[in-house]
Specification:
Elements: H1 4-7, H2 13-23, H3 30-43, H4 54-79
Length: 80
C-alpha cells in the first residue's frame, strides 16, 4: 500500500471529506434556535433553575458514597 506522501496527494481523502462536511454543514437560524429554547423552557421543568440546596445534597451523597467505599475497603482488608 502506498502512503499519501508517495502518491503526491497533500491531503488524505478522509480529511478532504471532513473539511467538506464541516464547511457545508447546515446551521439552524437564530430564530429557529430561539424558538426551540423557548419551547424547551415552557415544556421541560429540568431546563430551568437548579434546586436551592443542590450543592449540599450532592456533597452529602458523595460523602456517603466515599464512606461506603472506605467501609468496603476496610472489610475487604480484614478478610485477607
Amino acid at each position: 500500500m502506498t502512503s499519501f506522501a508517495e502518491s503526491g496527494s497533500e491531503i488524505p481523502p478522509d480529511r478532504q471529506v471532513a473539511d467538506r462536511l464541516t464547511s457545508e454543514r447546515p446551521v439552524p437560524t437564530a430564530q429557529f434556535r430561539g424558538n426551540v429554547a423557548r419551547w424547551l423552557a415552557d415544556r421541560d421543568p429540568g431546563y430551568g433553575p437548579r434546586p436551592r440546596r443542590l450543592r449540599v445534597t450532592v456533597t452529602a451523597l458523595v460523602a456517603v458514597g466515599l464512606l461506603l467505599l472506605l467501609l468496603a475497603a476496610i472489610l475487604f482488608l480484614r478478610t485477607i
